Amino acid sequence: MSNAAVLTEVGKPLEVRDDVEVAPPGPGEVRIRTGASGVCHSDLSVANGTVPLPTPIVLGHEGAGTVVEIGEGVTTVAPGDHVVLSFVPNCQECYFCKRGEGYNCEKAAMTAMGGMLDGTTRLTSQGSPLFEMAMCGTFGDETIVPEISMVKIPKDVPLKVAALIGCGVLTGVGAALNTATIKPGDTVAVIGCGGVGLNVIQGAKLAGATNIVAIDVFEHKLELAAQFGATHTVKADQENAASIVTGAADGRLADTVFEVIGLEPTMNQAIELTRKGGEVVLVGVPRMDVMLNLPAAFTFLYLGKTVKGCWYGSSNVNDDVPKLLDLYQEGKLLLDELISREIGLDGIDGAFEAMGTGQVARSVIVYDD
Ligand SMILES: [Zn+2]
Ligand SMILES: [Zn+2]
Question: Residue 251 gets which letter from DSSP?
Fold first, then answer.
């Protein structure tokens, strides 16, 4: 029997259960002993209905762990290996994967159904099947994950640090290094400095941006933003972001602006803070009913702005996970500093509450071995 925090119904607190049965891995699947899992805003988004997924479900999609058993045909990992889980599968065979767009892998369509790649589930509790968020289900101490949704990592990287790579770091650093085209000397603004926004900031620094303007309503997040490389901080409800950006950039607006919240007003603010010819990268997760209404002539034609979507930091996990771990080991990527709290499964609801008040970068569930 395994333990897992289960979302039984949208809007309810998670139920920590100790009776979860894990079926053996099917073909192309791997049984994982979860080492650690970040608590990401997207988990909360499933719990509160912003992102619709079927229930009952084991949330958690930002994790790392140890392979304990492999299903038929699995060749890239073996029992005992450490892996980072990828919430987007990367089959390396489809049209998108072959074009270097692993983040668009065709196999990802099945993650919306809550089961494995074949649509069925592997976990059971109290007589009902449990779905797994993004085929990861890292809010459980054991999980079944497709082989194509993991990347083997060296054993000297702590699993709690590796876990964060799986969502927040790939998304945030990837937004800056892969999705955007930041040039050395650029001015970048980042709206929203939570777990992902901080990674956008350190990604922008790695890309060589000279001015990095961090915008948030929470003082504590702005302090973290400065630690991660922000050169200017803007308290969003008190200060004028545009004047601080233009003050930093010789009177121009920003070359690149990242929106990392997912709200209409902040997406519009991101477009307004972008200079002519500049780039807006939308990273935040909006509700399904959020619409953008843009002046076409004065956004795209006369001002030549580019508005880019960003899914999973435009990452190819098999290349990007090792690259990010190298940067971490060279001291160029802050990962330990992202961990604000280490919690158990019973601490997830508290972690959700802490997100709303801007207290933490990341709460991380650390499982006992
Ligand atoms: Zn996430
Ligand atoms: Zn693919």
Answer: T
Which CATH number belongs to the domain containing residue 182 in this structure? 3.40.50.720
Dist. CA 4 → ligand 2 center (Å): 29
Distance 168 CA to ligand 1 centre (A): 6
- Give the total number of structural domains in the chain: 2
Q: Residue 158 and residue 163: Cα distance in Å, rounded?
A: 9
User: pLDDT class for 360, splitting at 50, 70, 90?
Assistant: confident
pLDDT digit string, tens, across residues 65-115 = 999 999 999 999 999 999 999 999 999 999 999 999 999 999 999 888 999
- Six token digits for residue 147: 């082989």
φ, ψ for residue 172, nearest 5 deg: -75, -50
* Domain harbouring 66, CATH code: 3.90.180.10
- Do the domain assignments include residue 329? no
CA 73 – ligand 2 centroid, Å:
17
Q: What pLDDT is attached to residue 368?
A: 75
- Spacing, Cα 132 to ligand 1 middle (Å): 14
Does residue 118 share a domain with residue 26? yes
Per the structure, the complete domain to which residue 252 belongs is given by 172-311
